[in-house]
Amino acid sequence: MPATTALRRSLAVLAALPLLALAACGYGSQAKDDGTARVAAGAEKIDGLDSVRIGYFGNVTHATALVGNEKGFFQKELGATQARYAIFNAGPSEIEALNSGSIDIGWIGPSPAINGYAKARGKNLRIIGGSASGGVKLVVNPEKIRSVEDVEGKRIATPQLGNTQDVAFLNWAAEQGWKVDPQSGKGDVTVVRSDNKVTPDAYKAGSIDGAWVPEPTASKLVAEGGKVLLDEASLWPDEKFVITNIIVSQTFLEKHPKVVEAVLRASVETNKWIKANPEEAKAAANRQLAADTGKALPAKVLDPAWKSIKVTDDPLAATLDAQAQHAVKAGLLDEPDLEGIYDLTLLNKVLQAAGEPAVDDAGLGVK
């Protein structure tokens, strides 16, 4: 059996989970429901809806959701329609929850959004807004790797086979002229698929020489003596690339557009507040992380991680399309039909009302 065929068959098994994971995950519990937010006295339900179920990861790359929850921005806009939150640590489980109706709206990364949409043949979700850019780095052992050329022949961790960072590293390695079998990870560079939770320990033990990982794992490695060799942002136009989007169930969007609009309005308000109050926002995010995961991040990890992530209302659609093409080129994904994956109508309505410019869907919007 050809290697590419074998790989795609193995990924088909992952698709049943469903499909490729995003590992800006790896922190937080599996679909941990932390209950409901407080509703202001005298508030009214939107369209008579009792609650909206919102999913996100217990991770700083989901800063909008963390801060919006902790500071009550979502609940304020939802009135008496209660915001219920579920915390995930893996992209496939969040897509599965969206598909089953366990959540209505979610903060999630590009790979599970792309693959979830492709697997469902465009029938399950829409990307309705952006949330964050950046926050991914190649951190290496400075005693073994002092330059890009030194990466050849070394063992580099990525969070999971076919996840967003795995695809990015394989694409970067190919651009250096190195050959790597995407399924086994063997080649001119050895790719070690390692859960974000254990990667710092693997680094300390010397079983990996570096890692291409999202925050806060990258900053945890730096705290263990690692050095940032490359910030992925440097590889993208204007140093912007999507790391977190907002998705919604198509059924929920059709039935409850006013509720979706309220959540997007809260997201835009949250991002504006984060930009205006970065230190307060960082503290709020860490308080919510502690509530969601049981453990706050230490300053030596939180401070650099927070600095490298940029909140944004723009979903940076062109970069999502590019990431999909990188996965195709690496042999990890059949050419997906992404037409209709975006519906930015409500977001642009909210942005216009806020006096902000509209954002673009890179030709991948609903027709």
Automatic annotation (TrEMBL):
Protein name per UniProt: Sulfate ABC transporter substrate-binding protein
InterPro entries: ABC_SsuA_sub-bd, NrtA/CpmA_ABC-bd_dom
Domain of life assignment: Bacteria
Cleavable signal peptide: 1-23
One MF annotation (Gene Ontology) recorded for this entry: ATPase-coupled transmembrane transporter activity
SUPFAM superfamilies: Periplasmic binding protein-like II
Subcellular location(s) of the protein: Cell inner membrane; Periplasm
GO cellular component, one term: plasma membrane
Keyword vocabulary terms for this entry: Cell inner membrane, Cell membrane, Membrane, Signal, Transport
Family named by the database record: Belongs to the bacterial solute-binding protein SsuA/TauA family.
